[in-house]
Specification:
It is a single chain. By secondary structure, this protein is of the alpha+beta class. 31% of the residues lie in helices and 35% in strands. It contains seven helices and 16 strands. A hairpin with a 6-residue loop joins β7 and β8. It is globular, with a radius of gyration of 29 Å. The N and C termini lie far apart (104 Å).
């Protein structure tokens, strides 16, 4: 059966190719040969097309078999029923280089073979309506991600030592995360309560005067490429926190940017993400109107009415460095913008270190108070 995946190998030595953001080329880690994205596209266009066609045929056959089995999932039909419900969301592919079976989540579009190390892409995940419009290539490498994460650790003086020793920082992964990019126009009107406060002295009194104002503002705001992550695996607040992305560096999508990284296809639809975008655009429009209310001591927004018109939407893959680790039965996720280096992630707190610092500060404070009391007594003796 024709393979459903493509291994991107060096034409010179057949070693694995991976995309390097610093050079903007695909490089071979064995012989050092480098190739442009366009060269790799041309070399693998036929194989990608064949792999995509094979996946489409396999998916169609699996669907027919599932229907015939009256609810039996694709995974169960291929591997038996022992996998249960989890198997319905997994897929199995054969590595073209070594023949090993690769077990992946159903949304996985790029990964690597754990046996031979070759980077693999599932072109069928990016065909037809599933094909992204754009991709922002990785600009920062794994070493930059590790350095940023270590710096993040050093900024927390209460971080438990056992956490840094056991969180496998070397396992940081580069992931192309699917995003919907929205263009929108917002018409907004807002009402504000504003005050001007002044004071002056009259004899023995200070008189404060507060004048209240009703302020109205309205306008139209246009937004371009407002991002919303389309992967249920990624926390929305993390993805929002590592913005902004420089969309001036977006490239037309090509699978040649994927070797060496993981990649997923979207599993959150446009409508669901559009609801998030509407709320975000309305909030931003309200903030812009409030920034225009000037010359007052205080400004409070009382009401905001806004309508959002979607002018267009694009599907893109954006670069994220990810480390997911577990410590004391709790999961910790760190995410870094693979273009700008902005990093977000929560850290545990060592109670022992926190209480230790509290005890030291308490002792110092007590010593200062004791010293102040002694100094006052000495002053009384000297000047009495």
């Amino acid at each position: 059966m024709p393979t459903q995946i493509t291994n991107y190998q060096c034409p010179s030595c057949t070693g694995p190719l991976h995309f390097v953001g610093g050079s903007g080329r695909l490089e071979c880690e064995y012989c050092g040969s480098t190739y442009t994205v366009e060269e790799v596209e041309a070399l693998y266009a036929e194989k990608d097309a064949a792999a995509a066609d094979a996946k489409a045929k396999q998916d169609a056959a699996a669907e027919e078999k599932a229907q015939a089995a009256q609810g039996e999932t694709d995974w169960e039909a291929a591997c038996g029923s022992d996998w249960g419900a989890d198997g319905a969301h997994m897929r199995a592919y054969n590595c073209p280089s070594c023949g090993a079976e690769l077990i992946c989540d159903e949304t996985t579009a790029a990964t690597s073979c754990p046996y031979c190390g070759n980077n693999t892409v599932v072109p069928g995940q990016f065909t037809g309506a599933l094909k992204p419009d754009y991709v922002i290539p990785f600009q920062l490498d794994a070493e930059a991600a590790k350095k940023a994460l270590k710096s993040h650790y050093r900024k927390n003086p209460f971080l438990p030592r056992t956490f840094t020793a056991g969180n496998h920082i070397e396992e940081v992964k580069g992931v192309y995360v699917p995003f919907w990019l929205f263009d929108a126009t917002v018409d907004a009107n807002a009402a504000f309560q504003a005050t001007n406060v002044s004071s002056h002295v009259e004899g023995d009194y200070r008189v404060t005067t507060t004048i209240h104002y009703d302020v109205l503002r309205g306008g139209t705001a246009q937004f371009t490429n407002v991002p919303a992550d389309a992967s249920s695996k990624m926390p929305d607040d993390y993805m929002d926190s590592i913005e902004p992305f420089d969309f001036g560096q977006m490239k037309p999508f090509s699978t040649a940017y994927l070797p060496g990284f993981l990649a997923d296809k979207f599993d959150v639809d446009v409508k669901t993400c559009g609801e998030r975008i509407d709320r975000r655009c309305k909030q931003t429009a309200g903030d812009l109107l409030q920034q225009d209310v000037k010359g007052y001591t205080t400004v409070t927004r009382r009401d905001l009415r806004a309508t959002v018109q979607h002018d267009g939407v694009h599907y893109a893959l954006l670069p994220i460095w990810v480390l997911s680790t577990r410590w004391k039965d709790e999961n910790y996720l760190f995410a870094m913008n693979g273009q700008s280096g902005k990093l977000v992630g929560k850290l545990p707190v060592s109670k022992a270190r926190l209480w230790g610092l509290t005890a030291i500060l308490t002792a110092l404070f007590s010593a200062i108070i004791g010293f102040s009391g002694l100094a006052m007594k000495l002053a009384e003796l000297i000047f009495s």
